[in-house]
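Subject: Sanity check before I submit

Could someone independently write out the structure tokens for this chain? I want to compare against mine line by line before I put it in a report. The sequence has 169 residues.
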Amino acid sequence: MSNDNIEFTAPGMNNESAKQTIALLEQRLVALLDLQLTLKHIHWNVVGPNFIGVHEMLDPQVDAVREMTDTIAERIATLGGVPKGTPKAIVEGRSWDDYAIGKGLVTDHLVALDKVYTGVNGDHRSALEKLGEIDPVSEDMVTGQLADLEQFQWFVRAHIESASGELKG
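---
Independent answer below. Compare away.
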């Protein structure tokens, strides 16, 4: 998608700032759409001890991440962009490999999910640094999302952490 011909954006924001913000938000949208699907995939395919606790922990995360994608997509539209949530847009926008585990044990999935959250959360932080310079509204939105995402990662880590604070995997 090209944002070169933005015809309108939020009042008080110039087209160049809008273009840069949209590009950053498009990356966050792809990551969160991918995360939402990955969480549901794990929900369907996790087995073993603590299955039900993990199974039930994931659905609220799916719902929250779905809300985040909607918020980001609507911000992209507000700034004059065209949010894309198609499977092709997700795959083409990713810079990471697909989630590799199918049916698997709780620990295996949670170790892999911790890595997914590390990537998503780290990229949210990187986007925040740039958004702080060009769009404080989007910065605030992403900051709020990051607080929830970091809490979700903490929930995951509580299942794979030893008493001494070491993570499995």
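---
OP: Matches mine. For the report I'm noting this point. The chain has one domain: 15-160.
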